[in-house]
Design a protein that fits this description.
By secondary structure, this protein is an all-beta fold. Helices cover about 0% and strands about 35% of the residues. The strands form 3 sheets. Strands 1-2-5-8 form a 4-stranded antiparallel sheet, with no helix packed on it. Strands 6-7-9 form a 3-stranded antiparallel sheet, with no helix packed on it.
Length: about 100
Amino acid sequence: MELKEKSFGEGISCIVMNINDNVVTLLRSVKSGEELTTTIEDKIITITAKENVGFGHKLALKKIEKGEIISKYGESIGVATASIEKGEHVHVHNLVGIRGRGDL
C-alpha cells in the first residue's frame, strides 16, 4: 500500500504543537537545504533541512545532545542516541523510544 502525501496549503511545511518540543513534524517532504518556517508562541523560527526527509517525519528544531529527551506534541518520545544538529532528521537512527517499554 502506497501512502499518498497530503497537501496542507502553500507555505505550511511543518508544525510544532508545544513550546517544549525540540522537533518539528513535517507536513510534506522536504529537500536538503530547504528553509522551513514555523511559529511558536508568536515567535517565528526558521530551520534549514540538512537532508531530504519525508512527509510525517521529524527534524530537530534545535541542537539536541546525546542523552537528551526528544519531545514532540508536548510528550517525550525518546532519547537521543547521538548529538543531532538543528535541521537534521530525527528518527530511529538517532533516537531510542522510551514509551511503553518495560525494560527501562
